[in-house]
Amino acid sequence: MGDAGASKTPLKIAIIGGGIGGLSLLLGILNHGDPRVIQPHLYEAALAFAEIGAGVGFLPNAVRAMYAIDPKLHEAYGRIADEAPRADVNGQQKYVFSKVYMGMEGRGSGMAKAFDEIGTVYNDNKLRNVHRAVFLDEMVKLLPNSLEADLVSFGKRCTDIRIHDAGVTVAFSDGTSEIVDAVIGCDGVKSVVRNILHQGQEKYEPCFTGNYAYRGLVPIEDATEALGEIAAVHHILILGYGGHLVTFPIKQGKTLNVVAFHGRSDWPHGNSWVVRATVEDALEDFKDWSEPIKKLLSLLQRPDKWGLFDLPPLKTYTLDGRICLLGDCAHASTPHQGAGAGMAIEDAAVLSRVLGEIKTPDRVQLTRAFAAYDAVRRDRTQKVVTRSRTRGMLYDFELSGVGDDLEKVRDTLSTQWDWIWDLDIDAHCREALGIMHQTHMVGNDSP
Questions:
Q1: Where would one find coiled-coil regions in this protein (predicted)?
Q2: Residue 263 lies in a domain
C-alpha cells in the first residue's frame, strides 16, 4: 500500500523570497525534481528581482554547491566572477584569498606599523567575487522563459501561514492567498515564515551584535590612489582596534567594494537596519586610522550604514513537513566569515536534492525530506553564526587569548576557514539522502 497522505496531483511548494537563496532553491528543484511530483512557485515581495548590497564573495564550498544545484548556475557564475590572483606556495599553485594588513598603529612593543602587511591567506578557489545584482540577473536568466509565469509571482509579501487538513494557506499583503502543500521560507533575517514556524514557542528575534558597517563603492582608479595597486587585485582584510575593513574588486575589476566595520553598544535606528550615512560619519569613526584608510573612506560613493544582527540557534528548521527554513531566515550571521550567502546556496543544494528524491507526490515523503535536510544542515549553519561573531572579535583585536598578538592572529587566520571550505557537498547531500531513506525504512517497519 502507498504512504498515508498520497496524492495523484503534484505537491505544490511555495518558496517565500526571491533572493539568492530562494532562486538557488527554485533552480535546484527544477533541475533535480520531477514536475509530475513537485511544482515549486516562488513568491517575491518586491515588484521585480532585486538584491540590496554591492559585492559578495563566494568561498570554494559555495562554488561547488552551485554545481550541485545546477551546472548551468556554476557556469553562469564563472562568466561574471573575478578571478583570484595566483601564487606559488611551496611549489604548489594556489590562489590568494586575502591579503591582511594593519590599519592603524599597533599598541605595544614590536607591533606592526600602520599599513604593514601581516600575512596572506591562500585557497584553491579560482573564482571569487561578484556584484550581487549581476549574479541575481544571471540566475534569473536560467529560469525557463516559457514557464516563468508559472514559477514566479511578484508583489507577494507573505503576511500569514495557516496549516490545516487540506494543506497550507499562505496569505499575502495584497489580500490574495494560495493553498499549497508546503512552504519554504527564504525571506531573510526578518522572516515572517520563521516567526510562524515557531509561533507559541520561544521567540527567535535577531540580535544586534554590537557592530555596524559602512558599505559603499569606489572606482578602482581612485581606490588604487589610496591603497596602491593591491586594491585592484586582492581581497584585503585590514585589522585594527575596535574595527576592521574588508575590500575587494568587483565588476571585473572596475569597482572596489568597501565594507568598514565599527563597534558600538547599541543600534539607535530601530527596525531600520540599513540607513543612509555620510563620508563624514565614516571619517569620524575611523579618525585614528592610517592615512590610506581615511583617504579610501573619503572616496565612498553614497555609503550606507548597516546594523549587524544575527540569530540565536533555532531548535528546528522545519515543522510537520509543512514549513521549512532556508538561508538567513534560519541562520543569519554576521559577515565576518564571508559565508552567509554561501550557506544559503549549500542549503539549496541539499534541500533540492532531497526534494528531488521524492518519487510520488505524498506529504509523508515531504516530511522525510525536510527532516533529513534539517538533520544535516542545522549544526553546520549555526556554527557559522557563532564562529562569525568570534572572527569579528579577532579582526578587532578583541578575541580572548589572542588580542593583538600578531603571531596568534596569523595562526588563527591560516586555518579559520578550513572547516567551511573543505565541505564535500556531494557527500553532504548523500548523507541527507541516507537519512531520508533510513527514516523511510524505519517508518515502514513501524507498526
A1: none
A2: yes
List, by residue number, the catalytic residues: 215
307-325 pLDDT per residue, tens: 999 999 999 999 989 999 9
∠ CA 259-345-120, rounded to 5°: 45
Cβ-Cβ contacts under 8 Å for 28 (sequence gap 6 or more): 68, 69, 70, 348, 349, 351, 352, 353, 356
> Cα separation of 158 and 370, whole Å?
21
Give CA–CA dist 101/114, Å, rounded.
Answer: 8
Number of domains in the chain: 2
How far is the C-alpha of 388 from the C-alpha of 410, rounded, in Å? 17
How many CA atoms within 13 Å lie on the side-chain side of 54?
23
**Position 128 confidence tier, pLDDT thresholds 50, 70, 90:** confident
pLDDT at 149 over 70: no
What's the grid cell of residue 189? Answer: 533575517
263 and 302 housed in the same domain: yes
As a whole number of angstroms, the distance between CA 242 and CA 259 comes to 14
Q: How far is CA 271 from CA 205, 206, 264, 307, in A?
A: 12, 10, 17, 10
Q: How high is the pLDDT of residue 56? A: 83
Give the angle 215-213-211 at the CA atoms, nearest 5°: 170
Domain span holding position 184: 11-84+129-205+312-394+419-426+433-441
